[in-house]
């Protein structure tokens, strides 16, 4: 999507939604600590606070440098990294926050293209699978409580892979359709403006005076010849009743 006013508006709104989402995650972690595996609480709060700081920084940068083209990629990359860190800290395949990846994929499809949505989905599933594999092989600290078998992990990974790709496809399809409709509306708007200008040119080039009113008799249009006949400028009598302008009416 082009870096126009609409995109900047999307970035600003998504930054606000991000902060709201992080606040909800923090509320869940504080109000229902049972959703966090044992030992992850010491990582959870610093991660969420750091994420809130980054989200606030994104809002400031979008308003400070509105024409910069790197806002969108920076926000998506930041979200992918932070969601991966949150999922790892809360138990990987046992985490309740894996679905946050889907939100990042949807955001990528809104800001960019369908290919970008699939790329984001691929990066998300690669990070999720890579972290899980490293923890399962003991290369990094295990954050999950259970002892899943290889078959269970394989099935879990395939289900997430399918879900991520399905969301990328559907979100990309919907975003592409919305962009297409938006371009059609913009074209219709330009045609309507051209037609309006053409109509005004015809009205003001008429030799006869033309004045139109609404149902209450208030002036809504007066051409140049009408201004010469009445001796009033349209800007001065717009919205006034005809009886107030001349007794002849």
What does this structure look like?
With 249 residues, the protein is mostly helical. The protein has 2 domains: 184 residues, no CATH class; 40 residues, no CATH class. Helix content is 71%, strand content 3%. The chain is built from 9 helices and 2 strands. Strands 1-2 form a two-stranded antiparallel ribbon. Helix 1 packs antiparallel against helix 2.
Shape category = elongated
Mean pLDDT: 84
Helical content, roughly? Answer: over 70%
- Low-confidence spans: 1-5
Distance between the termini: 55 Å
Residues in β-strands, percent: under 5%
Tell how many strands the DSSP assignment holds. 2
**Any idea what the radius of gyration is?**
29 Å
Classification by helices and strands: mainly alpha
Secondary-structure element order, as H and E? HHHHHHEEHHH
| Largest sheet composition | 2 strands, antiparallel
Q: Could you state the oligomeric state of the chains shown?
A: single chain
Q: What is the total domain count?
A: 2
Number of helices: 9
Strand order of the largest sheet: 1-2
Notable features of this structure?
249 residues, mainly alpha, 2 domains, 2 strands, elongated
Summarize the SSE layout with pairings.
Layout: H1 5-31, H2 41-64, H3 71-89, H4 100-111, H5 114-136, H6 150-205, E1 211-213, E2 219-222, H7 224-230, H8 234-237, H9 242-245
Antiparallel strand pairs: 1-2
Short structural description:
The chain is 71% helix and 3% strand. It is mostly helical and 249 residues long.
